[in-house]
Amino acid sequence: MRSYDDWMRVENPWVVVAAAPYSEKARDAAVSRIIDTMLEIQLDHDHIKPGWSPVSSTALACAAAKGELMAEGAGGGDPMMVAYGRAWRGSPWHCACAWLLSQMTPRMAAALLMQAARVRPKKERVSNFWSKTARELVEHQGEAVRRLHLTERGVEPFGSVRAWQLYAREARELIRSWLRPGSDLPKR
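Structure (tokenized):
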């Protein structure tokens, strides 16, 4: 029987999703991977604007994986390039995660992604917008929603940390329900 960590190391996310209905550990790993991809999609939003120059490592990897750019020394055997080629923005995995995100209410999506993006200040010494306590993040939720590119979805503010946490938990449970036997998830 595989552990959560074993499932997180499986390269193909569809294998984890396929096992999720039958294994609680696989389901937990699939939920984590789906949320990570949803967050990546929303935070990578700026890099897909027309005319945007691919200056980030993610954008460079994407371009190389699609054969649009080949940096010196970044041959086909480069592990980062190979891995990104399996998970580029237009892949079935990204499209499925984007669709799942679109099925959530705006508040659920915002709560889930704010929680996923948050870096606990006492655990990590990171100086960026997401390094906040839960209370601070709820106080700055307007900016958080803007940074997650969710303002157009009309997210109603969370009145408290508790309300934010409840919406995030509800969103996680919704994803878990999509991974149970008999659910109609998008197929690869």
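The two ends are 25 Å apart (CA to CA). Residues 47-86 have pLDDT under 50 and may be disordered.
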